[in-house]
Q: What sequence folds into this?
């Protein structure tokens, strides 16, 4: 018997997911959830300066057809209270505490960029908590070029301001025709939510997160051989923010890791290739 394809109803679109809050140690964390409850939830952790509105709704919606999705704002970012941490260590401890407060004993984690740093640290800090790990556009502690994320990004952020374009056009995507089309489509998707949007990050939070990224890039390498769970690593083949060599490094150093690289794609390869990435992620999570 072949199952009929499931349809995403309007109530299951990420654009309509209400902002929710959970309080841990007097800090109120903002999150959104959708998808069927029960089973192992999938925690989504996002990039530098990202708020809840920066999760790609196409990816979230398709994952939510069969998975309970929880997208989280870090402390001090968006609608979450507190001051943004200066280390990945603190961010990981925050997420572990939020997962515990929400009542989950086991989770899957998908981390993009900064979120991938945090996801690795969670898996190392709480090895019994994470069942499966998806690391996208990211790299290991001490990875090549990670301490230079700011140096690479500032000129392109300025270019975005001068050209009246979102800097993610230049930071996340290649300058080819395919890359520019993918950037336009992705940025349009991020604007689909018309109500109850998250707060933009403050300059202070933005800079504090960058300090955490620099510290991660200068940190001594971690023993990734201790991550004894299935891991999917995905990136574009031309990531200029967290160089693609870091994805290869992760896949080599984590025992059960699988690597997927998308052609003519940059840091936002999973957004450019979302129609290929989502089935891959669903198969990985369901295996």
A:
């Amino acid at each position: 018997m072949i199952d009929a394809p499931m349809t995403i109803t309007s109530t299951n679109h990420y654009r309509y997911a209400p902002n929710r809050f959970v309080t841990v140690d007097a800090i109120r964390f903002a999150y959104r959830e959708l998808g069927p409850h029960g089973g192992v939830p999938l925690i989504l952790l996002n990039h530098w300066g990202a708020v809840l509105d920066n999760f790609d709704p196409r990816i979230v919606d398709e994952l939510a057809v069969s998975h309970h999705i929880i997208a989280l704002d870090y402390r001090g970012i968006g609608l979450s209270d507190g001051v943004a941490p200066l280390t990945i260590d603190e961010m990981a401890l925050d997420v572990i505490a939020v997962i515990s407060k929400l009542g989950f004993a086991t989770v899957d984690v998908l981390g993009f960029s900064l979120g991938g740093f945090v996801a690795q640290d969670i898996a190392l800090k709480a090895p019994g908590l994470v069942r499966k790990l998806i690391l996208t556009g990211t790299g290991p502690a001490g990875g090549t070029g990670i301490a230079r994320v700011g140096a690479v990004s500032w000129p392109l952020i300025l270019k975005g301001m001068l050209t009246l374009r979102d800097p993610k056009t230049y930071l996340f995507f290649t300058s080819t025709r395919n890359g520019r089309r993918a950037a336009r489509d992705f940025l349009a998707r991020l604007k689909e939510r018309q109500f109850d949007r998250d707060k933009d990050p403050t300059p202070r939070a933005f800079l504090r997160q960058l300090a955490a990224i620099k510290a991660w890039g200068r940190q001594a390498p971690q023993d990734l051989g201790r991550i004894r769970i299935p891991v999917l690593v995905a990136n574009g083949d031309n990531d200029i923010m967290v160089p693609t060599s870091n994805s290869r490094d992760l896949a080599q150093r984590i025992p059960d890791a699988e690597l997927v690289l998308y052609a003519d794609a940059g840091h936002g390869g999973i957004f450019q290739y979302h129609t290929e990435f989502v089935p891959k992620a669903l198969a990985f999570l369901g295996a």
Remarks:
- The chain has one domain: 20-286.
- The chain has ten helices and eight strands.
- The longest strand covers residues 27-34.
